[in-house]
Amino acid sequence: MGVLAFSGFLNRLVRVDPPTDQGTATVRLVWDALQKGNLNDAVDLMAYLIQEQCVGHEIFARWTERMVQYVVKSDPTQTLGGVHAATMQPWLSTTVAPYLNVPEQPPALEVKGEDVRYTWPRTSMVVKMTRRDDTYPLEVYVDNARHAPVHELDDGLREAFAANNREAARRAIDGVMMRNRFVHEIYCDWCWALLTLIRDTVGEENYGRAMRATMADWVTVRYKDMLDMSAEQLLQLTVEGLRGEFFGPELLGDVEVTEEEDRYVLAFDPCGTGGRMRRGVPQLGTPPRTQAPYNFGVSHEAHDWNWREKGVCLYCTHCADVNELLPLDIAGRPMRVTEHPMNPGDKCRWYIYKRPELVPEKFYEKVGRKRPAHLLPLERARAEWRAKSGKGEGRQ
After folding, report:
1. Cα separation of 362 and 368, whole Å?
2. Rg of the chain's alpha carbons, rounded to an integer?
3. Which of 112, 119, 155, 321 has its CA 20 to 30 A from that of 173?
4. Is 170 within the bounds of a domain?
5. Spatial contact of 266 and 352, defined as CB atoms under 8 Å apart
């Protein structure tokens, strides 16, 4: 099965390449297996690639639900339709246009209960969100057939692999990448828009608590076993999620991973979420999301949740909470540390230290904390993390 192997820790298949190879986009491994005629490996890797991308979609579906509900509950004048009209309708055509031919004007918005639909005149395309338990999964339909996202190997792809039709298989692979990236982009743009509305609704002084309220439950589920992971296992889980979010200059999922004596360094050029939105996407002709028609917000003042920097993209601030502040509050140690670039053209970097005591003081200070003279004993830290995060769901 090539670089895939069953992980007893995660209880599922995972890529087990050497650490510095982890950042190679999985689709490149699929292409390579296909070119070499290793069809079984190509199929297995393609199924794994789709699951990488599915994880991001599921997280976004849960997070956006939390943010919408937070706004509605915080402001009695807000409705689901009002939130959509403010946070998605103005820019959706710009994000959609590189993928599907839609008019430049904003789409029509229809809200029935908790079902939301966007449609364009003279097209057969629909973007819709329908509540499913505690999530708002986003789906795209063309000619009344589901177009995106793709969360399993479809018949056309299986048939192309089975027939060893490399040209047809490559087209099908690229189609899956395009459709899943399309959904990913809409979700990312919506998250930054929602975070901007949250900041403007509750005020920047309350933004950190509000952002935490929308994230804490799904973050602690995904990383509930953080303190049981080795640095290598945390690297595997971390990079797996990043590959599924279309990182890198070719939007394929590439992450630069290097190993130093005390840590692993992950470099993003760009990150497939905040970095992409801050730079815009030249390949697709869409602008930075601080410009029209997006006009998404940045922080006005320095806070713990923006690494003590003014002017930080409000989407990027969630990394301070996920990587540093939430783990510090629950377990007394950061999970990863962030080196966020103020210049959108520079690389963003995350560091995974091989032991928590190796994290330098400066990374605590950037989020308004002091490095403890003595870390909590591991068993006590584990007990406190589990008590605060709950049993949650299984490892993802």
Report:
1. 10
2. 21
3. 119
4. yes
5. yes
